[in-house]
Amino acid sequence: MRWRKLLLVFAIAPFASGPTAANEANFETEVAPLLIKRCVECHQGRDPSGNLLLTTAEGFHQGGDSGPVIDLENLGESYFLHRVADGEMPPESRGQSQKLPDEEIEVLRRWIVGGAKWPEGRVLDLFERTSDVRGGRDLWSLQPVERPAVPQLESLQQPTNPIDAFILARLEQDQMQPAPTASKRELLRRLYFDLIGLPPTLAQIEAFEQDDSPQAFDQVVDQLLNMPQYGERWGRYWLDLVRYADTSGYERDQEKPFAWKYRDWVVAALNADMPYDRFVIEQLAGDELPQRTEASVIATGFLRLGTWNDEPNDPLDYQYDRLEDLVHTTSSTFLAMTVKCARCHDHKFDAITHEDYYRMASAFWAGPIATRARSLLGGPKPDELGVTEVLGWTDLGPTPPPLHVLKNGEREVPLGEVVPASLSMIPALEKTFDASPEGSKTSHRRLQLANWIATAENPLTARVLVNRIWQHHFGQGIVRSPNNFGFLADPPTHPKLLDWLADEFVQGGWKIKRLHKLILTSKTWQQSSTHPTAAEYAQKDSTNRLWWKSERRRLDAEALRDAMLTVSGELDLRVGGPGFRPTIAAAALEGLSKKSAAWNPSPADAQTRRSLYMFSKRGLLPPMMTTFNFSDATQSCGQRDVTTVPTQALVLMNNPFVHDRSSKLAKSIIENAKHPQDQVAQLWSIVYGRKPTAAETQLAQQHLETQWNRFQKLATTSSQETHAPSAETRAMASLAHVLLNSNEFIYID
After folding, report:
1. What's the pLDDT tens digit per position in 698-749?
2. What is the pLDDT of residue 594?
3. How many Å apart are CA 653 and CA 378, to the nearest integer?
4. Long-range CB contacts (< 8 A, 24+ apart) of 583-591?
5. Mean pLDDT value across residues 332-359
6. What beta strand segments (E) does 374-503 contain?
7. 466 CB-near residues (< 8 Å, 6+ apart)
8. What is the pLDDT of residue 26?
9. What share of the chain is helix, strand, coil (3-state, %, to 5)?
10. Chain centre to alpha carbon of residue 579
11. pLDDT surpassing 60 at residue 85
12. With contact defined as beta carbons under 8 Å apart, do 563 and 189 qualify?
């Protein structure tokens, strides 16, 4: 070790002999960014590593447990430089050396031998600026939303919809053209699935194709937005975000009574076009509103939807796990920031301090966090909530016990008491929460947190929501990491468009339906999924970040199931109420300790409701739904996976639900059409919303004939029950099954 120290002395000797102003390191432009990037993460706050504080001049000169880090009488023998040059600091991480590059070590050498000058009063902040290793408070998503000017195009025709101007301006830069407009049939099918999650009929498609009025498309948009099925379609997206399920999870996976009322509240709020800021506030603090209602208390079910363990290994530790769920779901859903990562330490990548986590957690600390009676399922008593038969949340009093910042997130190692406040990552909006009003039964911290999130000045809230709306209309968001707007986020494809939409959304009264219509009437959304120069453009932009065409999308699990029920004529459109339990194959119950006793399916006629109303048991999700990427209900899901795997084809070919729909459809067609050609035409019109081509008619009739002969032969050579379907019905069901398995049915475009 001593020989390395001597080499270091010789290496810096020329500087130690008398550095000039020309080679002194500039503190603000060179030293401060380097210390913040490499050192401050560990050497800051109440408990700096080695008791060495590197955020102030006083801390730096005072040194740490190993003594002073520099000797002002002999700068060349700086202990600080020795540790850095030896690669001992920063320490190894996961077995990998974190030794600084030579040029960074040289910056520190020049600074120290120049006298280690530190500007008076200068305090370094880990998150004051963004570097290549973490985001600071200057990160793009934390900056105020400023409405940009709508681009003026140079070579392309100026569009009337501002969305198109932003998209075309970027395409213009790359000398690219957008795809042509999709056909009216494609547009209507896409529109129906986008807004209500159900397919249009042939009559609806033909009526739209024949309507040449300029208002035709707008009128259909308005019609669909005003249908109750709109809230059901878009409510499902929200339920993914808030980790909705009807049971508690863990071993017993008990039912959460009346969770369905929260689901119905979401649907009703969306159908009523509740302003989004109010939508946020009611879910976080509907019980604390001055004009609270039963509906606003139901909205607080948002805070009750997480998993709940009635027998945790350590009940005192478990209450902090519950806090983490509330912090994570709230911050991910409304802000697209992963605040939970700061439970044990400052966030590794984002401007979220260790204390910030506990600031947000303090908003929920007054609630029923600690383990209570098992029958309450982790919630308040009805008399505490003030409403019966509701899965809601409220505080247990106006003044909760102190909440401490925990070192490394460990309950046994409390640090200072946290002062309830907003997150600090947006300094202009940072505020300490007031004490509860006199006579209040709650702390009012959640209401203050909700107001902080829902203010028009919060740069994240509107950006995050408009990105989510865009994502579900286009398949991807402008920011393609919808639950993460932090340093590790996928950068926005069109940041100015995102800000224009966010400002337009807020200026329009936070109305979601207005935003839908703005997007849907854009030429960008109306593009075809095919492009005449797709092969060339795919070389430039294979992931379609420039939005030069529409993305061809598969139906999600719910839309696929609902579409099958629609074309078979069975779909029950009743809105709201308790969910139904679908039939689940015995093989799927084998892993349960109680097997069949653990699941009692609803009557068959109750199972034809929309998939939104399917009872969601965390420990037993229907295999057909999970095969098509149904969301995991354990945590907030901003974007489902979209996979293409062999099991999906096997499910469509073999699942009893699909075969039953095929049989129902076959019986209906045979009852209404007698000639095979008419039957084929009717089948195509119901399933595809179009007439079959001559070739399709010929092949379909051949299929019917082949299958009829096969089933007729089986019927004559085997004993069958008298109520068994006829050969004609089975042949038609076989053909219907082929269509329900086809890409044209399963894909929107």
Report:
1. 999 999 999 999 999 988 876 655 578 899 999 999 999 999 999 999 999 8
2. 67
3. 42
4. 583/607, 583/656, 583/657, 584/620, 584/622, 584/623, 585/623, 585/656, 588/620, 588/622, 588/623, 589/620
5. 97
6. 404-406, 414-417
7. 498, 501, 502, 505, 515
8. 93
9. 50, 5, 50
10. 24
11. yes
12. no
Question: Quick check: 229 and 259 in contact, CB under 8 A?
Answer: no
- pLDDT over 50 (residue 267): yes
DSSP 254: -
Torsion of CA 58, 59, 62, 66, to 10 degrees: -170
Q: What is the rounded average pLDDT of the residues 72-97? A: 80
Task: Please give the backbone phi and psi of residue 78, each rounded to the nearest 5 degrees, phi first.
Answer: -65, 120
Burial class (CB in 10 A: 0-12, 13-18, 19+), 161: middle
The C-alpha atoms of residue 112 and residue 68 are separated, in whole angstroms, by 13
- Of 122, 106, 102, 123, the closest CA to residue 114 belongs to 106
Q: Which residues pair with 421 in a beta bridge?
A: 432
Tokens of 462: 């509107």
Mean pLDDT over all residues of the chain? 93
Q: How many angstroms separate the CA atoms of 545 and 552, rounded? A: 14
Beta partners for residue 489, in sequence order? none
> Which regions of 392-493 does DSSP assign to beta strands (E)?
404-406, 414-417
pLDDT tens sequence across 445-486: 999 999 999 999 999 999 999 999 999 999 999 999 999 999
Give the DSSP H or E segment for 659.
helix 656-672
Q: Are 470 and 512 in contact (CB under 8 A)?
A: no
For position 596, what pLDDT does the model report? Answer: 59
Q: Identify whether the C-beta of residue 317 lies closer than 8 Å to the C-beta of residue 464.
A: no
Token pair belonging to 144: 């105020």
At residue 721, the pLDDT reads: 58
Q: Copy the structure tokens of residue 278.
A: 């109010």
Tokens of 475: 């398949």
Q: What pLDDT, in 10s, does the model give residues 25-70?
A: 899 999 999 999 999 988 988 788 899 999 999 999 888 888 888 8
The three-point CA angle 157-158-160 to 5° equals 125
With tokens 């800051």, the residue in question is 44
Q: Residue 613: name the closest of 249, 301, 246 by CA.
A: 246
* pLDDT higher than threshold 70 for residue 20: no
Q: How many residues does the chain have?
A: 749
Q: Rounded to an integer, what distance in angstroms lies between the CA atom of residue 315 and that of residue 319?
A: 7
- Mean pLDDT confidence for 572-596: 86
Confidence at residue 5, expressed as pLDDT on a 0 to 100 scale: 36
Structure tokens at 158: 């100026």
Do 660 and 652 touch, CB atoms closer than 8 A?
no
CB 382 within 8 A of CB 388: yes
21 pLDDT higher than 70: no
Checking if the pLDDT of 1 tops 50, the result is no
228 cis-preceded (ω within 30 degrees of 0): no
HSE, side-chain direction, 13 A CA sphere, residue 244: 29
DSSP helix/strand/coil, 329 = helix
SS3 749: coil
For residue 360, pLDDT beyond 70: yes
Q: Which residues contact 165 (CB under 8 A, 6 or more apart)?
A: 150, 151, 152, 153, 158, 159
φ/ψ (deg, to 5) at 460: -85, -40
Do the Cβ atoms of 358 and 393 come closer than 8 Å? no
Distances (CA, A) of 453 to 34, 107, 227, 289, 331: 33, 41, 30, 15, 9
Q: Write b or e for each residue in 417-427: b if 16 or more Cβ atoms lie within 10 A of its Cβ, otherwise e.
A: ebebbbbbbbe
Contacts of 230 (CB under 8 A, 6+ apart): 195, 196, 224, 270, 271
- The per-residue pLDDT for 10 is 32
* Sequence letter at residue 147: R
The pair of three-digit structure tokens given for residue 140, joined into one six-digit string: 């793009």
Whether the Cβ atoms of residue 185 and residue 217 lie closer than 8 Å to each other: no
- State pLDDT tens for residues 655-711: 999 999 999 999 999 999 999 999 999 999 999 999 999 999 999 999 999 999 999
